Amino acid sequence: MPTSKSEPAQSPGAHGSGGPFHDLAVIGAGPGGLAAAVTAADLGLRCVLVDAGRSTGGQFYRHPAPGLGAARPDRLHHGWSVYTGLSDRLAAHRAAGRVELLTGHQVWALERAGDGDWRLHATTGPDAEDRTTVRAAAVLLATGAYERQLPFPGWTLPGVVTAGGAQAMLKAGLVLPGRRIVVAGSGPLLLAAASSLVTAGAEVPAVVEATAYLGYARRPGVLAAVPAKLVEGAGHGSALLRHGVRLRPRSAVVEAHGTDRVTAVTVARLDAQWRPVPGSERRIACDALAVGHGLIPQIELATELGAATRTTPDGTAALKVDARLRTTVPGLWAAGEACGVGGADLAIAEGELAAHAVADRPVRAALLRRRSRLRAFAELMAAAHRPGPGWTEWLREDTDVCRCEEVPAGRIKEAVGELGAGDARTVKLLTRAGMGWCQGRMCGSAVACLAGGADGAEVRPDSRPFSCPVPLGQLAAERDDLGDPDGPDDRGHRAEQDHQDHQDDRQDR
Amino acid sequence: MRRTRTPAELVRAEPGPAHTIDFDGRPVPALPGQTIAAALWADGVLAWRTTRVGGKPRGAFCGIGACFDCLATVDGRPNQRTCLLPAEPGTTVTTQEGHGRADLEV
User: Fold this and answer.
1) For testing the chain A interface, which of B45, B67, B99 should be mutated: the one with the most A CBs within 10 Å?
2) DSSP letter (8 states) at residue A12
3) Do A71 and B13 touch (CB under 8 A)?
4) Is the dihedral of CA A87, A90, A94, A99 positive or negative?
């Protein structure tokens, strides 16, 4: 990276001293972050709202760029008016100077400086060559989630995309990966994705869901408490029915076929442990496959600071928060998916709650009740869609598990079985699985499972000192202008320490 | 009876005038506001990178900038996430082979 590119960002006030001061920095401008920022501003806090994307809305309210001139963006969304309501409030607060919006800013590290304030280190610009530091007294993480993937033979073929990716490309770019798209995996996102795809003109020959959907019925009281969720589900269901989409429960895509792109998939029935049932395979022709197995909270910024996590019923690590959405790190709050995946309505409720907590203001009892109801529903959904351990049986020795480093299942099994690797970190050091560009986001769950993570065991987050790839020039510049070199959380030292840990691991072997 | 429709028809899009980007030497249409990956999908292109080890074709996978599978060489710069980069008029996209830095090899 040309180091000179970082020069323009070093204007006075841009960083160094940390820039203009804010009472609250909200990271993530999706439903939770938007609700938090506008509520905090309503309560008199000076806020900065930071997001990596080009506009607000996050993944849920992702929408066409203005240049596409969409007159009816609501047709690709559930609850679009909620987003426009939040957007209008944000616009009013921005006009009055109460909220600063920073889009195109990817926060890669949080640091508590010696003066007690937070510094948010962010990259900007197309090559992440420019940088900014944002300064605030409190930080609220509304960083959302990314999709969990379980590999299968052929999943690296072009035309195999994530269910959320198909949604995102459709909502933002008005494009489809093919004409005949199989939707597969597990979780409520599959129905939403399939419903969007058929409404936008694609043919969806099947929605393949690994669970039986019976998990929901076990706690009818929880379901009855959130009627809006039933209406939303019924909406997706009726769209699928209208377009003749077949739902295949207790089944999975166990292979994608094709040479240069996907041309068909093999679907097999699964037993209760997600083991493919021999002899149940059938082939479905398609030119694209949208696949995902639930969502994983995006929490690296907090876990790197030592924030405690909990294991969700579907086996992901989420931030542990108290009733006022405080993480275990003083001055750090979280809302929405970061506290456990639960959807946009829950994220909005938690964003509002967290804003009240940061402002130290009382909260309406109705809001607290709403949050509890939605959170209970989220835990129920998570339990219903928990992956069974038998999925590894559909892997072949040569199935790439790590897409970035092209590490096949056979090498990972060898690391575990013959070389004695007992966790994902050791597998990574032995095989490079999880060491590539995506930082293990795509293969992390699968590798942890293959490394023998017992079903039901506590899930520990990966250590990732930087939450996204950062050019080395930025780190060098960061050291030059650390406001307080004796501060308690010197990032440079942390990075160095992490490097040392890796060295030690290698020597141990 | 199913009526075939497009995403643009669904949201009643009336985009600004289309322009073109250059993909491996041929023009590919793009609408204002679309990313490079979206313009390529709209043209039926699903792969614009080959992997470092196996030389296998890859394109957009996660669509939100998390997986880095959609990397390509854009205007001469390798390793650009095409699902995030806008397709500007005249943008040149080249299928990236491996790490995209063959010029640095000795």
Assistant:
1) B67
2) B
3) yes
4) negative
